[in-house]
Amino acid sequence: MARCAIFASGGGSNFQSLIDKKKEGKLTVDLSVLIVNNSGAGAVKRAEDNDIPVLHCAPSHFETEAAYTRQLDEHLKKFDVEYIALAGYMKKLPSEIVARFRNRIMNIHPGLLPAFGGKGMYGSRVHKAVLEFGAKISGITIHFVDEEYDHGPVIFQDTVPVKDDDTPDTLAARVLKLEHASYWKVVDAVCNKRVKVEGRRVFGTI
C-alpha cells in the first residue's frame, strides 16, 4: 500500500475526511505521518486520535532554508513517504522536495484555477474574491504541486453555483462539501497509479 504524508496547518477537516474514508475501506492508502508547521493545528489531535505519527517541522525552526529542507527530507525518508497530500498547508514546499516528488504531491484549492489562485489566495480570501468579481460558479481544483503557487497540472475540478445571497462563509461551506467528497478519491487514484501526466494534462480514472 502506498505511503502518503499529510501536510496541514489548520483544523484539518480534509485530513479528517481522508481518515474517515480510510476507516471505511474506501481509501486504500497508508496515511503514514502528519507534518505540521504549527504545533497548535487542529489536525494534530485528529492524528493523535487515530494513531498517526505527528511531526512539527517549520521553516522558522531553522537558520537557513537549506537546513529546513534537509530536515524535512530526512523526515520523509524516515517514514518511507512516496506521496504527499497537502490539506490546508500554508507554507510553500522547498523546490528540492517538489522536484524529488514530482507529480506525487497533491493540493486542494477552494476555487477554479487558474482564476482566483496564486500567492496569498487561500481560504476566505478566495471566496471573497469570487463574490467581488461576480462569478456565477466556483468550486475546487485538485492539482499536482510544482514550484509556483497554484500552478501545477490539474487533476480534478468540480463546481458549485454562486448564489445571489452568498457570503464568503456560505460559499465556503458549499465548496468545503465538495472538498470532502472529492479529495480522498483523487488521493486514492494518484497513490494507486490510476492517473498519468503528459505535460500539463492529467489522464485517468478518479
Describe this structure in words.
It is built from six helices and nine strands; from the N terminus they run βαβαβαβαβαββαββ. With 206 residues, the protein is an alpha/beta fold. The strands form two sheets. Strands 3-2-1-4-5-6-7 form a seven-stranded mixed β-sheet, with helices on one face. Strands 8-9 form a two-stranded antiparallel sheet. Strand 4, helix 4 and strand 5 (105-109) form a beta-alpha-beta unit. Helix 1 (13-23) packs across helix 6 and helix 5 (124-133) packs across helix 6 (168-191). It is globular and about 50 Å long. The model has no long low-confidence stretch (mean pLDDT 96).
CA-based shape: globular
Number of helices: 6
CATH architecture: 3-Layer(aba) Sandwich
Radius of gyration: 16 Å
* Beginning-to-end CA distance, first to last residue: 18 Å
The CATH topology, please?
Rossmann fold
How much of the sequence lies in strands comes to: 15-25%
Total strand count, please? 9
In which order are the strands of the major sheet placed?
3-2-1-4-5-6-7
Number of separate domains: 1
* Helix/strand/pairing category: alpha/beta
- Major sheet description: 7 strands, mixed
Write down the oligomeric state.
single chain
Q: Quick one: CATH superfamily?
A: Formyl transferase, N-terminal domain
User: Mean of residue pLDDT?
Assistant: 96
Order of helices and strands: EHEHEHEHEHEEHEE
- What proportion of the residues is helical, as a percent range? 25-40%
The CATH class is: Alpha Beta
* Poorly predicted tracts of residues: none
